[in-house]
Amino acid sequence: MAKDHQLQTLSTLALRKRKLFLLKKLQLPPQLIRASVVERFTKCGKPNCRCLQGHLHGPFYYLTQCLGVGRMRKFLLKTPEAQQQAREAVKAFNEYYDQLHRILQISFG
Q: Which of the two ends of the chain, N or C, has the fewest CB atoms closer than 10 A to its terminal CB?
């Protein structure tokens, strides 16, 4: 977590005002997910398939979530709509996390 060095120059009152402003602005988006959208290419293993010469099958898009050490959950995103929804949900989480990170920097320096 990188520190915002500009915060170190602000007064306590200015930091409190900044924190209140950020808290009022912070809203939990209705659709967010802590995950990643992953693009994969694969080989099928058929003996005469062109994928054995490097022309892999794909791209296939997956929504992946880490559930813990060595535990992953993967969902195949079959349609462009599902891919777009997944990207938007991941983006919403990242934006929310960034806002929360700014507030925590003020709170805990």
A: N
